[in-house]
Amino acid sequence: MKFPTMKQCLSGALMLTALVATPAILKTNRANALPPHVTEELNLTSEQQTELEAIKDNARTQVEAILTDDQLAALEGKTGRERHQAMRSLDLSEAQRTQLREVRETSRAAASEVFTEEQQAQLQEMRAEHGERGKNRQKNRREDFAEKLNLTPDQQAELDAIKEDARTQVEAILSDDQLAALEGKTGRERGQAMRNLDLSEEQRTQIQEIRESSRAAADEVLTDEQLAQVQEMRENRGNRRRR
After folding, report:
1. Residue 200, C-beta contacts closer than 8 angstroms, at least 6 positions apart
2. 20 to 30 A from 193, CA-CA: which of 88, 156, 186, 200?
3. 232 and 185, same structural domain?
4. So which residues are the signal peptide here (predicted)?
């Protein structure tokens, strides 16, 4: 019998919280929504599982009621990461973004009521461990990126400066409350928190301009050969996301 690894357990538990936080993004079969090793790790009772399923289903219904027919059609047939990506790509109105955020917050609060204090502590610990692993992965990816492109120390320093400058510009656009939502978050966790911000159209436009400007500046640092490698990496990453 093959037992799940600790990494699988932690990932599953984090998936549970994500399931509640973003109910419309994930499309899972009701019977398979909570992997056995997750319920075992948290020692969830059958009553708790039923309550969490009801919260997820209710949130999903609310979210789908907010979306237009065209937006729902864009999600049709998509599951997992592909559905998540499609959800992020939707052209949502400010009213829709506000409503979706309210649904997420309400669902998260409802789910928290289902867990015992001990289970909540376990989840918090899992999130912390997950965040630490995320930092390590980010560091490893950065080192792998530099190694694959054979970046010189000068190039690395220039790219770091461009990244830091872009971060400073983005933070100057955000409100104090929005900055507080990003506090202490790094890597993928920060990226997710950034996507969850209730940004105005003006903020979105400004951030997009900063990203495009930063990418153009970074491209200027690289040689033609390195640019070709970067393009190939981007295409490979895009292909993996579509799977």
Report:
1. 94
2. 156
3. yes
4. 1-33
Taking only the tens place, the pLDDT of each residue in 71-97 is: 999 888 887 777 777 887 888 888 888
Kindly give the parts of the chain with pLDDT less than 70: 1-38, 130-143, 237-243
- Which residue range(s) make up the domain with 95? 7-115
The total number of structural domains in the chain stands at 2
Site of tokens 């900063």: 210
Q: How far is C-alpha 113 from the geometric centre of its chain's CA atoms?
A: 23
Question: pTM of the entire structure?
Answer: 0.50
Are 44 and 157 a contacting pair, CB within 8 Å? no
Instruction: Say if 140 falls within a structural domain.
Output: no
Q: Please name the amino acid found at residue 27.
A: K
Is residue 84 situated within a structural domain? Answer: yes
Round to whole Å and give the CA distance between 197 and 178. Answer: 7
Nearest to 51 by CA among 26, 24, 20, 9: 20
**Phi, psi values for residue 158, rounded to 5°:** -65, -45
Distance CA 92, CA 68 (A): 9
Residues 29 and 101 in one domain: yes
